[in-house]
């Protein structure tokens, strides 16, 4: 359940980018979080033929990649 917590970090940011609305977006964040978890679960089940990956591995990779992309974008904006 550890890497699944990346959903809690990425869902609000993605929802804010998709809706372009200021302030807290609870309902869009919940919908985006649910969609991300479903997509990660499907990817974990079907990524490797004959085997299932743990969903935490997939969410960790996706969440870590998104976090790195956000940090790189923030760093590039300051230069």
Q: Could you estimate the helical fraction of the residues in percent? A: over 70%
Estimate the global geometry from the Cα principal axes: globular
Order of helices and strands: HHH
Q: Tell how many strands the DSSP assignment holds.
A: 0
How would you state the average pLDDT, rounded?
A: 83
Radius of gyration: 14 Å
What share of the residues does DSSP label as strand, in percent?
Answer: under 5%
Overview of this structure, please?
This protein is mainly α and 79 residues long. The protein has one domain (3-78). It is 75% helix and 0% strand. The chain contains three helices and no strands. The chain has helices at 6-19, 26-46, 55-78. α1 crosses α3. The model has no long low-confidence stretch (mean pLDDT 83).
Topology:
Elements: H1 6-19, H2 26-46, H3 55-78
Short description:
With 79 residues, the protein is mainly α. Helices cover 75% and strands 0% of the residues. It is built from three helices and no strands.
List keywords for this structure.
79 residues; mainly alpha; 3 helices; 0% strand; globular
């Amino acid at each position: 359940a550890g890497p699944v917590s990346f959903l809690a970090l990425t869902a609000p940011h993605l929802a804010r980018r998709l809706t372009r609305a200021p302030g807290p977006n609870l309902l869009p964040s919940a919908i985006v979080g649910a969609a991300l978890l479903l997509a990660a679960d499907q990817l974990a089940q079907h990524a490797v033929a004959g085997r299932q990956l743990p969903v935490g591995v997939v969410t960790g990779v996706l969440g870590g990649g998104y976090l790195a992309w956000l940090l790189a974008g923030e760093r590039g904006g300051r230069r």
